[in-house]
Design goal:
There is one protein chain. This protein is globular. With about 550 residues, it is of the alpha/beta class. The strands form 7 sheets. It has a 7-stranded mixed sheet, with helices on both faces. It has a 6-stranded mixed sheet with strand order 9-8-7-10-11-22, sandwiched between helices. The longest helix is centred in the N-terminal third of the chain and has 28 residues, at about 115-145. Strand 3 (about 40-45) and strand 4 form a beta hairpin. It contains 20 helices and 24 strands. It binds nicotinamide-adenine-dinucleotide.
Amino acid sequence: MEQDSKNNSLDKVRSHLQRECFNKLFIGGKFVEPIEREKLPTYYPATGELLHEFPRGKANDIHAAISASERAWAEGTWAAMSAVDRAKIVAKMAQGIEDNKEMLAEIEAADVGKPFRQASMTLGGAANEGKYWCSLGKALDEEQDLPVNSGGGKGGLPPEEWNVVYRRDPIGVVGLISAWNYPLNVAFRKVCPALIAGNCAILKPSEIAGLSCMFIGKLAHDAGIPPGVFNIVTGDRDAGVALTLSPSVSMISFTGSSITGSKVMEACAPKLSQVALELGGKSALVVFDDTDLDKAVETTMKGFLTNGGQICTAHTRLIVQDNFKQPLLNRLKEELERLPFCTNPITEKNRGDRAWEDGKTDVVQPVVCDSQHKKILGFLNEAKAAGVEILTGGGVPDEKVVGHSGGYFIQPTVLVNVGQETDVWQKEVFGPVLSVRSFSSEAEAVLEANSTKFGLASTVMSSDPARAMRVANRIRAGAVYATSTGEGILAEHPAVSRGGFGCSGVGRELGISGLHEYTELKSVNYTGFTLTDAKIEDAK
Ligand code: NAD
C-alpha cells in the first residue's frame, strides 16, 4: 500500500516533467535540443529510483547561448528600457512561481528529497523575493544621473563648472551558476537582479538537482522577455567551466562550494571579469548557560537539521558553555533519537521545517544523492578513525526504521569533544552532522566561533542582551544572529544584504547591495551645459 502511494506520487512528478521546458535547453527565446543530444539522470533521494533524464548541455551549447545573449546585448533593447519596465516583466515571472507552486514543490521534493511542505514554503519565499527585487527597479532608476557633489572644484584641479552625475550601467552578458540545495530559490535570486539591472544572462543550474530551475525558462518565455536576454543551459561541470572561461561573459555570479568558487575566480582572472561568489560555511551556534534549555535544544536542531543540514548557513558547530554542555547534550540526544525519517518527501504535507512555525524540528529528510551520501559517510568514518566521540547517530539508519531500502538517509549525528583541527570541525560536511566543543569564558567562545576559514553566518544565544550583542559583534561572519530565544535564526529577508567573510564568499547578495553587484558604477562628467539643457530630468 505504502509502496503504491510512493509509485503514484513519483509518477505524478514524472508526468509534470513531460513538459517541454524540462526536456530542452532555453536559448534565444526558444526551447532547443542540446547539440549533442546527451542526457543526465536525476534520482529520487528517498528511494534511489530514476526520476528524470534532462539535457546535458556542453561547451557548444553554452557558446550558442552566449552568442544569443551577445546579439541581444548588442541590439540593446533590454538595457535601454527603464529598470521599472524590466521589473514589470520579471514580476510576471515571480507571479508564475506563485501560480505553479504546488507543481514546483512536488518537483523539488522529488529532485532534492525535501518534504513537500518545506519546498512549498521556500518556493513561496522565492516568489516574494522576486516581488521585492522588482520594487528595487524604481530605486535603480532613481539612482541614474544622480548629481555628485564635486565640491565645485575647491581643493582640486577641476574647474568651478565641473559637474558629475553617477550612473549604474548593466555589466553585459553575465553567467549565473547555481547550487542544488534550494534550486529555484538560489537561481531566481540571481536571475531577478541580473535582469532588472539590464544584463543579458545565461543560467547554468546544478546537475545534481536543478529541474525546478528549468521552469524559469518557460516563465521568461511567457513573460515576454526578448529572445537571448535570458537563456538556460543545463549540464554538468563542463558547461560551467565553458561559461566561466568565455571572454564574452563579463561577470559570473556563482553559488556553490568554496573549492569550486576558487576555480571560478581562477577562470575569470585572466580576462579580469567580475565575480560574485556565494560559497560554503561552517556556522557556529554559541550557547551561554543562561539560555532556556528547551530553546537551546530546539535552536540546535533547527540549526543543523534544516533541509537535512544541506544549507550553506547550517549551524554545524555547537559551542556551549562548560556547565551547560551536559544538560544540553542529554536533551539533544533524546530528541534526535525520537525524530522520524521522511520516507516519501513528495507527499509530506504536514511535516518538514515546522521549526519555522513552532520551533520544533519534526522530520529527517534523505540527503540529495548517492555521491553526497558517500561523502558524508566518509567524513563520519574518518572522525571515528580519529577517535572522535559519537553522542548519537554516526551512520545509515536501519531499513526497518526508514521503512524501505535504497534511499540516501543518514542518522542525525552529534560528535562531541571534537578537535579543532579535525575535518569535521574545519570542513563543510553538508549533511545532518553536528560537531560540539565547549568554552569557559566569553573570550574563548569568540575564539572558538572564529576558528575556521569560513564566515557565512553564526548565532549567539544568551538571556543577557548586552553579552549576546557583544559576542555577535566579535564574530567574523556575513550574518550574525543574537538571540535569547533562537527565533529567526537562519532567516533571510530580501532587503537585508548578506554574503561571506573569508572562504564563504566575495560580494553581497540581496538588498540594494545585491542589485549593485550586477551593475558598473559610472561617473559622467560634464561641463559647458546643465542637466536641464541635456533634458536628462525630462527623460527620467
Ligand atoms: P558545487 O560547487 O559542486 O557546484 C555548484 C555549481 O557549479 C554547479 O552548477 C556545478 O555544475 C558548477 N561547477 C562545478 N565545477 C565547476 C567549475 N569548475 N567551473 C564552473 N562551474 C562549476 O556546489 P553544490 O554541491 O552544487 O552546492 C553545495 C554548495 O553550495 C555548498 O558548499 C553550499 O554551502 C553552497 N551554497 C552556498 C550558498 C550561499 O548563499 N552562500 C547557498 C547555497 C549553497
